[in-house]
Hints:
This protein is of the alpha/beta class. The protein folds into three domains: about 5-175, N6 adenine-specific DNA methyltransferase, N-terminal domain (Ferritin, Up-down Bundle), CATH 1.20.1260.30; about 190-445, Rossmann fold (3-Layer(aba) Sandwich), CATH 3.40.50.150; about 455-550, no CATH class. About 50% of the residues lie in helices and about 15% in strands. The chain is built from 23 helices and 17 strands. It has helices spanning about 5-25, 30-55, 70-75, 90, 115-125, 145-155, 160-165, 165-185, 195-205, 220-230, 235-240, 250-260, 305-310, 330-340, 360-370, 430-445, 450-470, 470-480, 485-510, 510-545, 560-565, 575-580, 590-620; strands spanning about 60, 65, 105, 110, 210-215, 240-245, 265-270, 290-295, 300-305, 325, 340-350, 375-380, 395-400, 410-415, 420-425, 425-430, 555-560. Strands 7-6-5-8-11-13-12-14-17 form a nine-stranded mixed sheet. Strands 1-2 form a two-stranded antiparallel sheet. The longest helix has about 35 residues, at about 510-545. The protein starts with a helix and ends with a helix. The relative contact order is 0.06. Residues about 185-190 have low confidence and may be disordered.
Amino acid sequence: MDNKSIKKLEADLWESADLLRAGSKLTSNEYCMPVLGLIFLRYAYSRFKLVEAEILKNRPMRRGKVLPVEASDFTEKSALFLPEEAQYDYLVNLPEEIVSANINDAKGNSLNSLGEVVNYAMELVEAQSEQLTGVLPKNYTIFSDELLSELLRIFNNNALDAVGGDVIGRIYEYFLNKFAKNIAQDDGVFFTPKSLVKMIVNIIEPKSGILLDPACGSGGMFVQTGDFVNAKGMSANSAMTFYGQEKVEYNARLCLMNMAVHGLNGKIKSGDEANTFYHDAHNLNGCCDYIMANPPFNVDKVKSETTENAGRLPFGLPSVNKSKEVGNANYLWISYFYSYLNEKGRAGFVMASSATDSQSKDKLIREQLIKTGNVDVMISVANNFFYTKSLPCSLWFFDKAKSASIRDKVLFIDARNYYTVVDRTLNEWTDWQLRNVNSIVWLYRGDIEKYKELVRDYHIELITQAAMIHDHETHDKIAAGATFAETLQSLEAFKAKQQELAKFDMEKIVRKDKKKRQAEWDEQLGAIDEVIAVAKEAVWLYDKFGEGEYRDIPGLCKIADLGEIESKNWSLTPGAYVGVAPVEDDGVDFNERMKEIHAELLKLQAESNTLMKTISDNMKELGL
């Protein structure tokens, strides 16, 4: 199943599930956890069947029969063992009248509704994993049997068996993000968008060691790190040790489910003991190889004495008011992230844009921080990257093992004008845009080969996609060594030809076939637009850095040394360094164009006066 088909499957499943929610009396907050629990169970069952098949391949026999699988067999494969009553096909195939099935739990209690049966299934799953104890939803009796049965059926879509467990994990993530938008309307929990998380992980480049997220929310940092490490041919569970703190227990449950659905193990603490302002819940100060986080911005009323006693403040407390409270906790978080790192650690986190040049005690902390030489990269992000916030933010990166050549330097990137619009309220970075920004960091660090690999990937992708859209001329040009700019020009010419063909075709098609044919043309032209988008990103990158030589780009990026940062009053705002991109000369003479505009305006005014006179005369003729 290709990416487009998977996206359609995601959308179809969401639409079906959300229609059921709309038809019930449940809020998104009430509906979210049980639905995610069902997707989790479906994923666990898919993985169970896959691992079971592997185990049975070489299973010994006794008295002519294959030995049955056991829970210990699955533990060795990092998979959950599912008792029969917790297996998805068992639940889906139950009779409409649950009472008639005579189902009892382990204690002999009769289960008389589908909700009770699913609750029991969740209990059985929790019994297989210490990490999941008390985590899975067990409130399925809030659903009618009819609605719950329909939900089970929706997630038993046969297409899920075709795409495999990894994609079910992706669908889980898709639902998590979709719920984030709806839950925001119910004043619910807050999620970090995937593109920001991926940017942090890509720049941190985790390999092995301890990763702490002291504000872990639903666990996105862990999931993306797992994907990154696994993609490098390693096992995330073997290479990494995941630790998380999350004060809101609801979020912590989502985190553990999210990790479990992606096959990750982690140690997550929640509740008051996990309030990072006052507790180092895992005793990891100075021990972490990686810190990643999206902490709550601009928190106030943090008790300064309790915070100071808890330590992790290498640069001292931020400003404290008369009530002995820290009025803005941004620099508490920043100090904690730095303090948690070991001598070679890296940190990447999201922070309010205002923190890059805030004054008073914040400025003194920032100056000390910069003088360590461990501030690595600063990235400004545009508005509307969050589901629940429209404000811009910044990404901060520390590296205590920077090379000598960049030890006293910081890379500033202003990406506020570089993104893709998803809809009116949401922006994101595509995977190619993520890699483009990442490549600036590679060149700053001297990782030229990674940049060259990206350029090669663009060539391969464009050749492959040109073949798929049947643009043989462009395909041959790329293969013959056409530049990215030439490739883009060729693709746009191909699109123009296809649009003309579509117009001609639609004019002569019979009416009853128009809708179907229009959909086919829309799909074809959409595929061409996707290739053009890739070509544009290739041009964006190559025009700036060619074969792989870093240079400061006005309005985008600049490397500044400590002397220049000091001259900017220790600001870490990228815009203060990169400046403004030059306005391209469009070749139009300003004075001549103004004369033309003035003449056009006079003409329009004359036409307007004539029209008004005609309307007035007509009204008089009508006696009005």
